[in-house]
């Protein structure tokens, strides 16, 4: 018997929090959304429930606390009834987990550094981003969604490519993807962002653009620190 | 006892197609003798009682097969199941538990929340605990001291989570134990080489006991890397890092 009462601690503009929201909506689980103002300060609630990482999303399910977006996704899939988010076949599950790790571990840094760095270094990262996008596009295999006819785990995990990528391009003036490049990914992005379950929990584009524009310096600093690591 | 099969030979009475099918059905593992990630996978296969063919890679001269099976990362371990490759040790561990659900012990618990916790601690080990430990081992002076302090801080979090249990998973080892397991022999090697104790009894008694429980478990003690050879390798790695920063 699962505990009732689902709350999600998120933050405007966080693709990681968005992942958790989409999953809850796909399952038809009612939830209360609590928004953090991460650029200002972290709430006591967040610090209490995620003392180790102090990050969003945090899923509160009765007296249970679950952190880390990929962990939250699989929890939502397993704890609640409703349409499956993960595939059922063990090999297929291994494949989507592999690509999720690829996205979070291998793509995040070059993506970040390709927009926020400069000069020769930037060229290298741009090249890497394109290689990564090619690998991801190949997983689409001409399907409507990575999961097939409807949205699944990998679609959710790759959400930032669907919505955040063009906003960041606009905020930074760095074009990562030319208009004729990666047509399958473009098509998928349109499908994802226009989906009736996804749309309500996507951050408003104009507001997201304003957010990145306002915090350009901060992101440049984060990128600089990343480069030095 | 479980042995790795280093080569595959088939009976002459099987037809070519049967041989190919049987060959494809054999579980294969591409590995490297010192890789802790490979050992995690091997222990998991042994928990499940799965026979596998082991292929030792020369990481300085990677085989065409490895590059074909793991073109994205070009790393070990790679598990081949029914001719299909799976890479990334965390992914492989969950796959092993699911593909052989009814063989041997479960590696992940049944309850969704317990599963989420196990996955959380695996990530903690990888993203939060490993980096400062590695930094502590590959640096010196102030940088090393800072890394040491950071490592101890994360170990204390882990100590609290373990809380005197025999294994992270309870009475029997599970996903988190397998994932953190290599620390049980790597940390003592690092301590010997640096001359500094990282896991002290007064501060981390549960972890110290866990390391012992893990190393002495029937699955693990049957299959560990050659320690002398590993120690020399670690020593060489530390020296190379220190040279590079001077």
Automatic annotation (TrEMBL), chain A:
The uppermost taxa in this organism's lineage are: Eukaryota, Viridiplantae, Streptophyta, Embryophyta, Tracheophyta
Q: Which InterPro entries match?
A: Glutathione-S-Trfase_C-like (IPR010987), Glutathione-S-Trfase_C_sf (IPR036282), Glutathione_S-Trfase (IPR040079), Glutathione_S-Trfase_N (IPR004045), GST_C (IPR004046), GST_C_Tau (IPR045074), Omega/Tau-like (IPR045073), Thioredoxin-like_sf (IPR036249)
Q: A Pfam family this protein belongs to?
A: GST_C
Q: Please state the gene responsible for encoding this protein.
A: gb03762
Coiled coil feature spans: none
Reaction(s) the record says it catalyses: RX + glutathione = an S-substituted glutathione + a halide anion + H(+)
**Its GO CC terms?**
cytoplasm
Domain of life of the organism encoding this protein: Eukaryota
Q: Which GO terms describe its biological process?
A: glutathione metabolic process
Q: Name any one GO molecular function.
A: glutathione transferase activity
User: Its Enzyme Commission number?
Assistant: 2.5.1.18
What residues does the GST C-terminal domain cover?
89-211
Q: What's the protein called, per UniProt? A: glutathione transferase
- Which keywords, in A-to-Z order, does the entry hold? Transferase
Q: Which family does it belong to?
A: Belongs to the GST superfamily. Tau family.
User: Which segments constitute the GST N-terminal domain?
Assistant: 4-84
From TrEMBL, chain B:
| Molecular function GO labels | glutathione transferase activity
Tell me yes or no: is Transferase among this UniProt entry's keywords.
yes
EC numbers, comma separated: 2.5.1.18
* Gene Ontology CC terms: cytoplasm
Chemical reaction(s) catalysed = RX + glutathione = an S-substituted glutathione + a halide anion + H(+)
Domain GST N-terminal residues, every copy: 25-104
GO biological process entries: glutathione metabolic process
- The GST C-terminal domain covers 111-240
Q: Which SUPFAM superfamilies match?
A: GST C-terminal domain-like, Thioredoxin-like
Q: Where is the signal peptide?
A: none
Under Pfam families, the record lists: GST_C, GST_N
* InterPro entries per UniProt: Glutathione-S-Trfase_C-like, Glutathione-S-Trfase_C_sf, Glutathione_S-Trfase, Glutathione_S-Trfase_N, GST_C, GST_C_Tau, Omega/Tau-like, Thioredoxin-like_sf
- Answer whether the UniProt record assigns the keyword Transferase to this protein: yes
Q: State the UniProt keywords alphabetically.
A: Transferase
Which top-rank group of organisms is this from? Eukaryota
Q: What class of enzyme is it?
A: transferase
Q: Which family is this protein grouped under?
A: Belongs to the GST superfamily.
Please state what the protein is called.
glutathione transferase
